[in-house]
Specification:
This protein is of the alpha+beta class and 242 residues long. It has one domain. Helices cover 33% and strands 34% of the residues. The strands form four sheets. Strands 1, 8, 9, 10 and 13 form a five-stranded mixed sheet that branches. A hairpin with a 3-residue loop joins strand 9 and strand 10. The radius of gyration is 20 Å and the shape is globular.
């Protein structure tokens, strides 16, 4: 899969596309716009656990099942999946989504949620009015193909003490199942808290577009911004320096 890195505006409202390559064959998966409700369901499916095994604490994170479910719920079309008689798989059976290899669905899900903080190697520069987080993300559309968009800027007013407590409390919450010595610790999902912090504190974004235009209205930013980008940007506000 070849991608191009660009500084163009990321089209939030465009139906998404993922390109895959397997055994030198090209496949394309097309998705409807992924809504906040879709992402919320995925976030709620992520399980972070710590278990004591032979005296050692082993931590595990499970999100693969949720990613596959996200793909199945939002996938509209797939091309490149040829049957023996030359038809596209989608034309050959109504159950075509379940016939796409599970590995393809999982890879597509990982690409759909591929967003991370963009590191700047230069000196830290501070804005007295806002705290800035810059992201980069993989995003594909039928018109533009797969691209890595960089320079995705989110500006926030400083978090209050109460908001900081909400985040730190959510990070530390857990449930112990089966006893503290040999049981399993299940950690709480903090993404709802981060989504709330984002919507409360966002004061501006750059690098995104809706209906072809950059958008500055904060109500529209809260409504239209991809929830995975919201979570990553809000998480970065509370990250330790590297």
């Amino acid at each position: 899969m070849e991608t191009t890195q660009v500084n163009a505006a990321l089209p939030l409202d465009a139906p998404r596309m993922v390109e895959l390559k397997d055994r030198n064959q090209d496949f394309r998966l097309f998705f409807r716009p992924i809504t906040a409700a879709d992402w919320k369901k995925f976030f709620e499916s992520v399980v972070v656990e710590s278990e004591t095994i032979n005296g050692n604490s082993v931590q595990s994170v499970e999100w693969n099942a949720g990613l596959v479910e996200l793909v199945m719920a939002t996938l509209n079309k797939a091309t490149g999946y040829k049957t023996r008689d030359g038809r596209e798989l989608q034309e050959a059976t109504e159950d075509w989504r379940n016939k796409i290899p599970i590995g393809h669905r999982l890879q597509a899900g990982n690409i759909l949620q591929r967003v991370e903080q963009q590191k700047d190697e230069g000196p830290l520069v501070f804005d007295p009015e806002a705290e800035t987080v810059t992201l980069k993300a993989m995003w594909g559309t039928e018109a533009d193909g797969m691209r890595e968009y960089s320079g995705l800027v989110h500006r926030f007013k400083p978090a209050t003490i109460e908001q900081q407590k909400r985040v730190f409390r959510a990070r530390s919450q857990s449930i112990v199942v089966g006893g503290s010595r040999t049981g399993k610790t299940i950690y709480a999902n903090r993404r709802d808290v981060l989504l709330g912090i984002y919507d409360e504190n966002i004061v501006g974004v750059d690098g995104y577009s809706v209906r072809g235009d950059n958008f500055t209205d904060l109500d529209q930013v809260r409504l239209q911004m991809d929830a995975s980008h919201k979570v990553m940007a809000a998480e970065a506000l509370f990250a330790l320096p590297e």
